Amino acid sequence: MDLGIQDKVAIVTGSARGLGAATARRLAEEGAKVVVTDVLAEQAEATAEALRAAGLTARAVIADITKAAEVQRLVDETVEAFGGVHILVNNAGFPRDKYLVKMSEEDWDLVIQVMLKGAFLATKAVMPHMIEQGWGRVINISSRAHLGNPTQANYSAAKAGLIGMAKALAIEEGRYGVTVNCIAPGFMETEMVQALPTYEAIKERAVQMQPIKRVGQPADIANAVAFLASERAGFITGEVLHVTGGRYG
């Protein structure tokens, strides 16, 4: 299926590794020109280089998406390199899990700033370009955790916030040919998750609770992003696509 994103320009935040790296690769395989951006400089450069080695079009721009000036530089460099920006995937984020009574203010602030403020700054920076060209796709990577998880008040709040923001912007920006959607992954087998000391126990519990009895892979999310970024999804906006193997609770 031709997704219609050949030569479109995509920024994927938090794409040095994991879901973001898989998403960057999938979009590049569909012909998009991809900007890999992260604070992990060496890994971001390596991810972009691996895409180029595969004959795909990519570059790395190192930026802290919690800082407005760095986000604007990211967008400016993208436009200078590739001539525009059409697709934004707000993927950057990480957990700082603790029960509320043990959660520090720093634990709360870091998670909210990277996931929610970062998505706000990145979307605000790309939106003028999308409005001017009359075409755009913003895809927020939320989580099944938007429904609530113990020890994840900060993470769940940020992921739920991404959904609220997407629904508001879908109404606000639709008149300009810009769609805004969310993907809510379930349990995914990424390097970050595999490094957790409780990985095996979390994996076993997740699979038990899913109708589809396998672990989610980064490619599952990357494929969903590619669809929502495509011409085929041009009449879909303000939606949340759960990629969870059927698990909601």
Structure characteristics:
249 residues, alpha/beta, seven-stranded parallel β-sheet, 8 helices, 7 strands, globular
Could you explain how this protein is built, in words?
This protein is α/β, with parallel strands linked by helices. Helices cover 47% and strands 15% of the residues. It contains eight helices and seven strands. A seven-stranded parallel β-sheet has the order 3-2-1-4-5-6-7, sandwiched between helices. α5 (153-173) links the parallel β5 and β6 (178-185). α1 (18-29) crosses α8 (218-229) and α3 packs parallel to α4 (105-133). The longest helix has 29 residues, at 105-133. It is globular, with a radius of gyration of 17 Å. The mean pLDDT is 95.
